[in-house]
Amino acid sequence: MLDTSRASAVLTAARDFAASSGLLSNLEEQLRFLDGYGGPNKATRCILYPDLAEHSFAFLMEIRGPDDRYRPWFGGALIFHGPHDGGGCGCAPTYAVALEPVHGWQVHT
To answer: Going by DSSP bridges, is the β-strand pair 57-64/70-81 parallel, antiparallel, or unpaired?
Structure first.
């Protein structure tokens, strides 16, 4: 399950940017990945938050326990890479590293 309630305005802006850049399918693919992370039994919930890097998001992955309550599991980010950050070279503004240059969104944990 993907909870976007804390990042709805930023997500709308990112989708608009992605559509105008021809990258909407990339963004939606990464969002589907986070949404389906727990498998068909939906044992996880991913809460999306705005990130400091433009068009990017932080997330908290929670896992459902035997009492049906969600608990924090791990955190990460859905980062937009491109010319502005050297395709994920580790430099500003994302400070995130990609093994190969990326132009689009990539999940980092």
So the answer is: antiparallel
Ramachandran angles phi, psi of 53, nearest 5°:
-80, 135
Q: What is the mean pLDDT of the chain?
A: 95
* pLDDT tens digits along 42-73: 799 999 999 999 999 999 999 999 999 999 99
- Band of pLDDT at residue 39, cut at 50, 70 and 90: confident
Q: Is residue 95 part of a domain?
A: no
Range of the domain at 59: 2-79
Report phi then psi at 33, rounded to 5.
-60, -50
Residue 104 lies in a domain: no
pTM, entire model: 0.92
26: in domain: yes
Are 27 and 56 in contact by the 8 Å Cβ rule? The answer is no
Task: Tell me whether residue 92 is in a domain.
Answer: no
Strands (E), the chain: 2-3, 44-50, 57-64, 70-81, 104-108
